Amino acid sequence: MLKRHLPFLFLAVPLILLAGEAGESHAARGVTIKGSDTMVILAQRWAETYMKENRGKIVQVTGGGSGTGIAALINGTTDICMSSRAMKPAEKTKLRDRFQTTGVEIPVAKDGLAVYVHASNPVKSIDLGQLRRIYLGEITNWKDVGGPDEPITLYSRENSSGTYVHFKDVILGGKDFSQRAQTLPGTAAVVNAVAKDPNGIGYGGAAYAKGVKDLALSFAAGKPAVLPTAATVADGSYPLTRHLFFYVRNKPAGDVKLFVDWVVSPAGQALATKVGYFPLN
Amino acid sequence: MRIVLAALLLILAHPALAQDAPASAADSTAVADSVEAVPDLDLETGNDDTDVDVSGKVEGMDEQLQVLQGEVDKLRKVKFSGYLQARYEISEGDADTVRVTGSPATITPANVERFYLRRARFKLTYDHAPWSQLVLQIDAGSDRQVRMLDGYLALLEPRTPEPRHQLWIGQFNVPFGYEIERSSSLRELPERSRMENILFPGERDRGIKAQSTWASRVETVVSVINGGGIGSPEFPTTDPTRGKDVLGRVRGLFGTFDAAVSGYVGNATVPLTGPDIELDRTRFGLDAQAYYELPRLGGGTLRGEWWTGHNLNADSIAANVVRPSATNPVTLLRDGANPNSLATDFQGGYVMWVQNLGATFQAAARYDWYDANVDVEHDQYDRWNVAAHWFYQGLTRFTVSYEAPKTDRADGAGGWVDPHDNLWTFQFQHTF
Q1: This model's pTM is above 0.80
Q2: ipTM value for the complex
Q3: Chain A interface mutation, best of B12, B17, B20, B78, highest count of A Cβ atoms under 10 Å
């Protein structure tokens, strides 16, 4: 008799433990956010302001890159993943393999993916085809895009970066970066390197472009080139506009929902604009 | 080793290390400032060539960096992963009748409780995206031998970041149904269903496979394989038949509901002294998975799979094939036996439920059955299996599982009994 009911007894154990976990709730350990380095400043500002306005709430933010954040979402070690790219089908499959869900995608801001050059570089604009050929290593001298007769130094990001993946997918069509591209661990590092290198070129969030010059981009040769501004990102005329996302495993609930709702509220969106990103609407 | 050292040097030498956020930009500026401060120090020594020296050194380091970058890029293409499943099993068997579960079941222990490693997998992936991928996976688990499980080259369609078309050649999981290709590190129950264990022992075979995704909604697979599978006791590595086995699958992907139909046509061989017997091997399968979400608890799924077809029947072969003996070292068909009776019509399937309980717990239950010969009674295998999981820090999983198989065994008095062979499994798994 006992033997027959043992399976049901041990199945009850996790339910009891779950009840304990639910009792502990997010209040004790807070809401955890992990992922995109592009978004880390923005998320930190959101968290600081939210915690100031909501006493007792805890929101912990860490970077590591979009890929790292998505991996943490899949293995259950973060509540929210912040990502500067959309989740790939293979990542959604992994999430479903573990949690029986493909996750919930929540756009939280817009960003212009800026292309930086040194402030002294006379080149003002390029088209997406030229940008592609530069990063594939087919164009290696600034004179080929209207600049001085100097070699181009490429700066890129690590492959765990959502910005890297977005750039690779959208600009390079999935092809590998030139082997000459130097890999740096964050957008700030790219900006820093380009700011010190008259022949450098890099890419990253528009909000980081301090001490460097943004290149105006055009969709193709002969088309008008535009800089990443609030207006051009909002109307889509800037070629490298993207959404920034929060990903959660299930429909937001509890403290996660309260924080996400605040982020997409006018107060959260105003803060995004203040930090240098672009609001959803 | 040279590559590892090169990578280490690159990390140490990199001018902009650990600058994830603007806060760290100050640090990098400080680093840069310290480099710029070098001439001042040298000026005190009166060395007029300092600027040239520093410039030369920086250029030299830059060249080194380019070389090291190439080495690191190569390393990035190589990925190691794997997992280990360590188990403690308690059988309810009252005699030495319970074999270690799994396929192939190679250990017949002399008691009913045991520790063992069910799976110890190590996988190497060389990702030459967007062109190709090489995968090698070895196992050193329950049979205490290191053996290769997967070894294939995948050619990828390079036009899109997520390749829509792939061509695999080598040794890989047979693309039939749903359960076979699902990694054992992800499965919610310790073992696959009985029908899968019987019909695809070892899950893998050698051949070629073309896989395509159409408009993100439909996935098609066509494959040509040897047919015996790597778990075949007779032909684990060779194919005795000239004709190859052909299979295909069409799966619809609808987000919260996926379904597929699979088909398989081939030949199976019964080796005899003299001409072998070749028989049809056919399989037809349907599978479906429905996903849902419960508030507060999380995601859950209902799955089902049903297969039917024609396959070699181990009981028929045991009854109709005379095995070699000391006095007669040949393998022959028993006098009067019908060779066609060595393969029979089968059917089997399972229904399964999985429910997540928050982020760290999960429960699963499955009922599976397999009837090796639909034309006879008392040869059906039925089983209930329930399990609970606790996930620790994402990569570690503790599982408690209980399975209750039901089979008919002649009691010697004209009746049938279900042997005592229920099984408790306690498993720790860690992935990397």
Answers
A1: no
A2: 0.76
A3: B20
